[in-house]
């Protein structure tokens, strides 16, 4: 840019004078950087808030939503206490280690848990004592047996069991009598032998007499029973009967899975007795047991077991088919623990000598049936009481627990577990019913007093493991459904306030959220939940609705809190809108980092995808409304169309300058916040991502972007004028720069940071903006260079005698401009234009992208070169002052006596340069010092070249030799460590020309002629390798015979010669001569015959030249071929010439190939006028040298043909 740029921009001064104070001209960009730093601090604050939140205690996440379960009345409370005392009073079974033995301890615990006074306790205990004691019941299940004895011929047995209750344990005298064949052991037995006589006539065993009808579903403890009949408990045979299992055919490991039930009159003395028999199809013990069922009471039961055994022995003696005894088991009722037994028992024989083996698996437990006129099957009241009792005990445990309720493990005391256990077994509450009661009690209590979800999950898993489709009645299922519904609704309401109750960065809160989602997911996946709540929506659907509703409620609340007061200015509107976006950024960060992983791992839901989609539209409505209030309807125009607007900057800036500067910064802050928030869209499902409104957020800032760039450009232009006016040396940079360059370079850096922070998402509009920025910065660079040079010229330092001061000011100016040039040159790279162009190639035509690339690179290159030329122009002022002295020192070198020492001759010139460059070496930066050295080098070369070209005839060869040595000394001086000028920089075309001419001038005539022919050989090689041959080609063979000392040359032909005659043809012949002639004075030239009227003559002529081997090896020796056109009337015409180096001819290098094997040589014909010969020009100046004069004459004649 020239001075006119300053004048052109001055029209904005009036507009900018008030708003854009030059003293603070770069404060606008600094303010942008401040906004950027504030944005970064907000981002960092999110991480710091995470750390702080993690150290906090999680908030109380139990909120009463009005779903607290209804309590029981005071009357029901007393009845429940009476039931508890009744349960304790009538404990059954042996107490295990995990339960409490003493009744008084249990009474005390119950009184404490219920919170009753001693008087109330005694009153209610009396009522409990008035109740009839319960009837004791034994539930027994014959599961299976193994390793029984084989009684049948097939190696198996047909086993079945016979079992009953006996008053006390006896060792039945079932063994064979040694004194008789099978007599009874008492008179009572002999008297009843007649009852068994009919057993011999039974042919088969019928099971119909001992079938049990189907019992209650809830008393079935195994679903793997072989048949419904085998597992039913209803209509059991009374305890006075002996009961039998089914017969299992042909097995030694029978599986029965059959259940029986016996009333117990005295648990202290009675025993359950079991025999295993091998069934035969004839008369057997099976039917005997059926008949014996008619006996009343337990007193005769011992006798009937004996009679059955005696009958078996009698029939055995008769040789008929009877059941064989396989073993027996006796279990004392008093030894059965309250928890029941489930174990394998070894079978016992009739006596110590009996040989039986095998084991039987038995499950047995005690229960009660209260004689209160209530059906035995009805335990619904017991179940409800069990739930209430559990809740009371949970409350009591929580009241006595010293820690937080969320830390309670859920484990009850031994007293509580004992009471609950006794209540369950006395009420005949099954295992699944117990787990159901436990789930309902704990989940309901969770609504009142927060429990850990880990505990609830454990209870849920226990319920799931125990439940079977038919294991609960309708009432029980309804009760469980009510518990599920209360708990699920409570969890959903907590999730609706997720952000408040479960802060994302709080580790404990996240653990609780994960547990909550896990248990909710577990419930929805459980078969029992689907069975009890068949119309419940899918969990994903329910949670999606909750997340959406909760997000909208939270978003609306944030909007209300942030924008509560009516804002008084546009800055407040934009600032608060930015604040809202930052809140959303923090929420997005929390959702992606914390909520998303938890939701995805537990319930397979993408939390952020659901939540952000819901607020996307509402957010952008708020954004566009705020922007429209500030920028008008222009926000809806595309950035590219806005840039196409050719409206002058003055109008644009005038409109923008009227607004407060803070507004533009608030706009930038809002843009940065939206840019940050938009990055989180990658966490929205790809199918919905393209439909998000936030995708086009940047489009609303096109008009703001245009105004930002216009203001920045004009602020920088005015800043330059101010900075140069207040310029001072920057001591921090070794006094090589001034403050103005630092100021402007910082503006470039701030512009780069501004662009990077902007991160404009659209590629094409980004490129257009980048071009606009580059153009603006190019103008800034040009203006700074122009004003800096003008400032230097205005001081007229070239007239001053203080050269050091002049050198310092010149150096500072050059250094400052170079600093800005480097900053500008690096700007597109710093702005990332190359990455933008590469990205654009993926979506736009290559031609369009290449056009953008060319425009940017051309813009940068042209401006950079322009500024570089300006720096050379400034530095060249130093050379202007040195030019006369340089010429004088070179003259001294040239005119020195021939006998003088070359080093001493050159030394004054080097000392002069060293003196002149000393101050600039310290003042100039490296790049500018290199420029100065380049200019000095160029000036020296120009002076030497002028001396060579215009005064060559008047100088001796010795003077040129001194100049050649001087050139080497100068090269060494300029490339030493002090100057650090690269050698490649010195070796320019001019340097090579000067050096070549000096070498020529310093050589004698014969050496020059040899050099001339060497150059001709090089020219020949280039012509041979060229695809074009305008003068045609010569074909020959050459061979040297060492023994004969003869050089043989065969001219074969020529092709494509030029036409020299009017008929379009020629009469060609070839002249062969060995050159230079002073090397071969005795050798005459020879020529071929003339071939008439042809452009492709065939000669096939051989020539001999007598040469010694030494002469063939002379340096510079060549064969010179000249093709001529013969003319009778006029002088012969020149067709072309070619050159062949003698030293490379076959035979000279001892190559002894046969002549017939030689390949023909193809030589392109050339003309001497094609290239200028410096050697000919130098030889022309040697008018006193006959050899030079003669050689030049011949070559000029050839050139002129």
TrEMBL record:
Keywords: Cytoplasm, Endosome, Exocytosis. One of its GO terms (biological process) is exocytosis. Residues 47-63 have a biased composition (Basic and acidic residues). Residues 220-231 have a biased composition (Low complexity). It comes from the Eukaryota. Its main location: cytoplasm. It is found in: Cytoplasm; Late endosome. Residues 668-788 form the MHD1 domain. CDD domains: C2A_Munc13-like (cd08676). Belongs to the unc-13 family. This is BAI1-associated protein 3. It comes from Adineta ricciae (Rotifer).
